[in-house]
């Protein structure tokens, strides 16, 4: 069998961590032939809770779980990491300005980027889940100059999965028949779920929907505001669906996207589709042989162009703001 892969998870004692760790241990992150060693990072006050989760992980008797270590120090937690899931972040609290939020997260993602630079394995793949995810990923990346920039990604897969599910519902089709949907831009309310290239059972999904009013007034806002809808209903933010999306993101990155389909990942822009280079923005991507590539050559209509630009502009503003704060 293969040597264990080191998976570092930050915010391990949080809600998403609780939903995520068991699925990693069961082999769903990397596949059924890959043993994993978990390296959990928490703040000192939450280490005990992470230890509790580790007891439960032990009680799962997962054949693929080769070990669990718990840290409150980033350098140790990322040492030898092959996969890093950056879930822990500083949430926005009442009265907090955007600059305060970015600064507080800079205090988390700068040292974590440095720790990844110092000690992660050569094949490190980073997924940032903690919000503001795209800009947190940019901060971490800018402090890891020795790691190829494209290894830093942020999560828009939950948005992607939400959009697939809503579109399937509208078309009365099984989710498995929806392909080539795209989330563009920022993981925020400005994100743009694009169905113009999507397919339902091989036919164009936008033509099958044929309802621009639904698209503009129901579908797009529903997907963008789904997080709030979940909080309203559940009394807590989405955790299991977020963990599920993190699993999907890494699984596809490592094992590939299915033939004839693509997925959405926030990745450093190479200038494709007019997105300024270096911004970590969501794109349609195909994964193959452990690498991802931005899907090229899609025609962007006027409806899409304005929405992509609005979300990308927000990312550019966030980049300016963290530059001003000296975080990148
Ligand atoms: P939570 O508050 O339940 O857990 C966060 C955990 O992170 C806590 O245990 C906390 O102690 C830990 N933490 C804080 N600072 C840390 C640090 N410096 N190092 C290590 N651990 C640290 O939050 P939850 O529900 O698990 O969500 C985590 C993040 O994921 C939030 O920022 C949330 O906004 C984001 N999120 C992102 C989604 C996406 O689609 N990109 C979807 C859903 C949530």
Automatic annotation (TrEMBL):
It catalyses: (S)-malate + NAD(+) = oxaloacetate + NADH + H(+). Its EC number is 1.1.1.37. The keyword Oxidoreductase applies. NAD(+) binds at residues 11-17, 105, 112, 129-131. The keyword NAD applies. InterPro entries: L-lactate/malate_DH, Lactate/malate_DH_C, Lactate/malate_DH_N, Lactate_DH/Glyco_Ohase_4_C, Malate_DH_AS, Malate_DH_type2, NAD(P)-bd_dom_sf. Transmembrane segments: none annotated. Keywords: NAD, Oxidoreductase, Tricarboxylic acid cycle. It comes from the Bacteria. Pfam families: Ldh_1_C (PF02866), Ldh_1_N (PF00056). Residues 156-323 form the Lactate/malate dehydrogenase C-terminal domain. GO terms for molecular function: L-malate dehydrogenase (NAD+) activity. CDD domains: MDH_chloroplast-like. Residues 6-146 form the Lactate/malate dehydrogenase N-terminal domain. GO terms for biological process: malate metabolic process; tricarboxylic acid cycle. Gene3D superfamilies: Lactate dehydrogenase/glycoside hydrolase, family 4, C-terminal, NAD(P)-binding Rossmann-like Domain. The active site is at 187 (proton acceptor). Substrate binds at residues 92, 98, 131, 162. HAMAP family: Malate_dehydrog_2. Belongs to the LDH/MDH superfamily. MDH type 2 family. Catalyzes the reversible oxidation of malate to oxaloacetate. This is Malate dehydrogenase.
